[in-house]
């Protein structure tokens, strides 16, 4: 019989949860985290991977269950954004300078580049939780969201399960190092998105200006001399 391994640092608080609920804890926390509820989904996944490395849990169950829970959570977020978010933004968005015109530009931007954002956001704290809601608000087509969300979830689960299984006692320091990189990546992604949206707005205004009809020259209305 395998004994539960020691979980270092911040992961140790999750030991009683995993001891009592096992796979259910992974599914429950990932599901809640992925539509915005602040629960320790990512750390639970990593702690469960440590348990799998020690033979207490089965990695071949953790991986598909974690991917499924992450996907369902993101799709709940997508539904919230799609069916409730737009009304909220249109009603209250002007208080934070989100006008219907700017939302339309964001929708166009997300429709063209949203797939890559959905995959990248999975690895960034904050964006991971808001990912589905933003996709829903901007009305990203659901099949497209589902495809890229599945890819992102599979990659994210695979990376963190691997880290959890091989890191051992070094897990805490490795996790904090990667978390610092997450913050830097989040800042770069946000700045990049802002820059692209600004560029889209300027281009949109330029196209409108070029398309504006020019005043037709006045026609000579004088009657010809007889």
Report on the structure:
The protein is an all-alpha fold. It has one domain (9-205). It is 73% helix and 0% strand. The protein is built from eight helices and no strands. The protein has helices at residues 15-21, 23-33, 41-53, 59-92, 100-121, 127-137, 142-167, 171-211. The longest helix is centred in the last third of the chain and has 41 residues, at 171-211. The N and C termini lie far apart (116 Å). The model has no long low-confidence stretch (mean pLDDT 75).
Short description:
The chain has 226 residues and is mainly α.
How would you summarize the topology of this molecule?
Elements: H1 15-21, H2 23-33, H3 41-53, H4 59-92, H5 100-121, H6 127-137, H7 142-167, H8 171-211
Poorly predicted regions: none
What is the oligomer described by this structure? Answer: single chain
The total strand number stands at: 0
Tally of DSSP helical segments: 8
Query: Could you say which overall geometry the principal axes of the C-alpha atoms support?
Result: elongated
Tell me about the biggest sheet?
Answer: none
User: Rg from C-alpha positions?
Assistant: 25 Å
Cα(first) to Cα(last) distance is: 116 Å
Q: Let me know the average pLDDT.
A: 75
Helix content: over 70%
User: Class by helix and strand content?
Assistant: mainly alpha
């Amino acid at each position: 019989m395998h004994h539960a391994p020691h979980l270092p640092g911040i992961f140790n608080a999750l030991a009683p949860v995993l001891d009592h609920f096992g796979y259910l804890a992974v599914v429950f926390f990932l599901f809640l985290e992925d539509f915005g509820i602040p629960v320790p989904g990512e750390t639970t996944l990593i702690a469960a991977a440590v348990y799998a490395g020690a033979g207490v849990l089965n990695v071949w169950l953790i991986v598909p269950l974690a991917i499924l829970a992450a996907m369902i959570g993101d799709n709940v977020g997508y539904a919230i954004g799609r069916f409730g978010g737009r009304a909220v933004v249109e009603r209250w968005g002007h208080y934070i300078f989100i006008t219907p015109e700017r939302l339309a530009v964001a929708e166009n931007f997300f429709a063209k580049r949203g797939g890559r954002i959905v995959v990248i956001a999975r690895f960034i704290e904050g964006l991971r939780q808001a990912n589905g809601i933003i996709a829903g608000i901007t009305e990203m087509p659901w099949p497209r969201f589902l495809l890229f969300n599945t890819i992102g979830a599979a990659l994210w689960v695979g990376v963190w399960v691997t880290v959890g299984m091989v890191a051992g006692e070094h897990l805490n320091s490795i996790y904090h190092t990667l978390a610092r990189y997450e913050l830097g990546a989040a800042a770069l992604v946000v700045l990049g998105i802002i820059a692209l949206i600004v560029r889209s707005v300027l281009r949109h205004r330029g196209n409108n200006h070029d398309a504006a009809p020019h005043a037709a020259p006045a026609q000579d209305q004088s009657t010809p001399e007889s």
